[in-house]
């Protein structure tokens, strides 16, 4: 049972609406619903009776609510007591992020953090996962969001897996495959690809998937900018394999499921060697903002 799950339950109980509760908690509705369902499964009871139009607390939910509220209040008091011993948080904190974060809503998390700790200066550093891991291990980066092949775990740092998602094939709406609902890797064997630079963790999962299938791949375009990759795909110059959440609303792009396609894991990484209070506070906010 996690504090964010308790927050989500209280928000739904207050608003009687999953959409409004998600907005109140600054998360997408699917993430909020998933976390509440996970909690219900763990408890073995339903906390809410819900249809497409109504949401009400069950008897179990009514019984759960007072202790859940008390637990959250106690956690908030504990956090306040701890920070009171060091006064207002100040100083710099460096957050490293890959170009394609989907498991965390970074801007909203930073808004929450800045509202609580306005005197902290946050430096954002965009880089590949291997550079960020080295930066965290060396103390140059306080916290990092990483993207790695599903079989790889960050080494030399503390970490927690945030999400695991299968890539989709991203093509222009003008592409000959745009109308397909599902593809095999073999269907993409003759395509021209755009991908992250060779040897980078952002590209490794795709390279490994094609190698495992024994299928060659032509990566004609390389870039470290997700926006540039999507621009090239939209111009029908190439296809890409990317997490589905990266696609831009309104773009002339189609996302197609790929059987046997690459899977990426996102991780939150940090060092336990003498972290600053600001870094510890930001880490707590990021972990609570997982979507």
Please tell me about this protein's structure.
The protein is α/β, with parallel strands linked by helices and 291 residues long. It folds into three domains: 3-84, Arc Repressor Mutant, subunit A (Orthogonal Bundle), CATH 1.10.10.10; 91-164 and 266-288, D-Maltodextrin-Binding Protein, domain 2; 168-261, D-Maltodextrin-Binding Protein, domain 2 (3-Layer(aba) Sandwich). Helix content is 40%, strand content 24%. It contains nine helices and 13 strands. The protein has helices spanning 3-15, 18-25, 29-43, 59-84, 106-116, 129-138, 201-213, 226-234, 277-288; strands at 48-50, 55-57, 91-97, 120-126, 143-149, 158-166, 168-172, 182-184, 192-195, 218-222, 240-242, 253-259, 263-270. The protein is globular, with a radius of gyration of 21 Å. The relative contact order is 0.16.
The gist of it:
The protein is an alpha/beta fold. The chain has helices at 3-15, 18-25, 29-43, 59-84, 106-116, 129-138, 201-213, 226-234, 277-288; strands spanning 48-50, 55-57, 91-97, 120-126, 143-149, 158-166, 168-172, 182-184, 192-195, 218-222, 240-242, 253-259, 263-270.
List keywords for this structure.
single chain, 291 residues, alpha/beta, Arc Repressor Mutant, subunit A, D-Maltodextrin-Binding Protein, domain 2, 3 domains, 5-stranded mixed β-sheet, 4-stranded mixed β-sheet, 9 helices, 13 strands, 40% helix, globular, DNA-binding, WH-like_DNA-bd_sf, DNA binding, transcription, LysR family transcriptional regulator
């Amino acid at each position: 049972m996690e504090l964010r799950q308790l927050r989500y339950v209280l928000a739904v109980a207050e608003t009687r609406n999953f959409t409004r509760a998600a907005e109140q908690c600054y998360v997408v509705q699917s993430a909020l619903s998933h976390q509440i369902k996970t909690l219900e499964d763990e408890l073995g009871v339903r906390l809410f009776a819900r249809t497409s139009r109504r949401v009400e607390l069950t008897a179990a939910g009514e019984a759960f609510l007072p202790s859940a509220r008390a637990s959250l209040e106690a956690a908030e008091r504990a956090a306040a007591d701890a920070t009171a011993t060091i006064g207002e948080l100040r100083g710099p904190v460096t957050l490293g992020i890959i170009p394609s974060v989907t498991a965390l809503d970074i801007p909203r998390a930073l808004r929450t953090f800045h509202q609580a700790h306005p005197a902290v200066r946050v430096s954002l550093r965009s880089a590949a996962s291997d550079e960020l891991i080295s930066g965290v291990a060396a103390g140059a980066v306080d916290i990092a969001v990483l993207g790695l092949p599903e079989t790889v775990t960050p080494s030399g740092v503390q970490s927690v897996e945030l999400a695991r998602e299968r890539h989709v094939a991203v093509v222009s709406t003008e592409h000959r495959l745009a109308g397909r609902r599902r593809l095999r890797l073999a269907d993409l064997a003759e395509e021209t690809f755009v991908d992250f630079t060779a040897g980078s963790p952002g590209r490794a999962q795709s390279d490994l998937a094609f190698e495992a299938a024994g299928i060659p791949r032509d990566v004609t375009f390389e870039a470290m900018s997700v926006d540039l990759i999507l621009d090239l795909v939209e111009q029908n110059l190439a296809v890409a394999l990317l997490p589905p959440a990266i696609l831009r609303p309104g773009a002339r792009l189609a996302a197609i499921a790929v059987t046997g396609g690459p899977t990426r894991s996102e991780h939150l990484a940090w060092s336990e060697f003498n972290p600053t209070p600001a870094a510890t506070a930001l880490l707590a906010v990021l972990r609570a903002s997982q979507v």
